[in-house]
Amino acid sequence: MRTILAADIGGTNGRFAVFTTDDGRTLRMGASAWLETTCATSFAELVGQLAQRGFPLAPRDADMVGIAIAGPVREGVRCTPPNIAWDIDLGGRDAGLFARSVLINDFTAQALACLTPAVEEATEILPGHADPQAVVAVIGAGTALGKAALVPDGRGGRVVLPTEGGHALFPFVDSEEFAFMEFVRQRTGRRMVIGDMVVSGPGLTLIHEFLTGERLSAAEVAAVAGADSRTIEWMARLYGRACRDFALSTLSLGGVYVSGGVAAKNPVLVTHRAFADAFRTSETHGALLADMPVRLNANEDSGLWGAAYAAAQFLT
To answer: Top enzyme class of this protein (predicted)?
Structure first.
């Protein structure tokens, strides 16, 4: 039996779990721990907190370590995350933390999780017909907006196309939305309003403040905004549009998985009629979108499964 330490490092939480495998293909998840990313001043400090929590596997004792990080991975060993105050350098400063490791983008991990039991309980949001030979899009809002695609490799398997699509400009379409865009620019001091700032936890805060004048955290907004509120309708509409644009950009005839903590904790954002309307609205490809299935993966351990899957490929 081989052991894998999986890590999923986001802007809010750092999740860790032990996985075991006998053959490098079948994974079993064991003990896990959630740490606050912002409570560590470095990646090494975050990893060091595991021992303080009584985590059952010492990082250097793992046969393989898989790390998913919310940012672009360079040369397979480095990442400077845009929403975390520290970076990871497994080719230099952090090289001694693990005996063997692989570093991937967090939405590469979310995409790989679609090949594991992590999505067994995913629920259908919008019906459709998935082409098993086509691209699958994976998109999700948390502290930021992540996107990736599972692409057929021509040999019966799939490879992941990672993206930093959450940093692309957000597509506003009418005068009220343009007013919101100006509000976000003034509130944040940033000139370009990107997907990360709109379809995310911080985006939910900004939408609610723009519509009501109340400045609340995303959790507080979710607690006070009813399904029939303008806040929820706006967020559902903009979330649906973000999914629609990514589905068209990737031609994801294999379907779309929505993941991330925002929808997992607030499924009304993707079950709301405004989400469906926005996803299926297209002056050119309405029929294509109407046949594209969308599923909600509310399993917040998915990133760990994806990181473990990536690590397991080195143990076969």
So the answer is: transferase
Rounded Cα–Cα distance for residues 153 and 61 (Å) = 33
Number of H helices, E strands in the chain: 11, 14
The structure tokens 């907190």 sit at 49
pLDDT of res. 24: 80
Pairing assessment for the beta strands 256-259 and 294-296 based on DSSP bridges: parallel
- Amino acid letter, residue 101: S
Q: Alpha-carbon distance 52 to 72, whole Å?
A: 29
How confident is the model over 65-88, as pLDDT tens digits? 999 999 999 999 999 999 899 999
Tell me, what amino acid is at 73?
Answer: V
State the Cα angle at 264 between 263 and 267, rounded to 5°: 55
Residue 98 shares a structural domain with residue 216:
no
| Residue 316 predicted with pLDDT over 90 | no
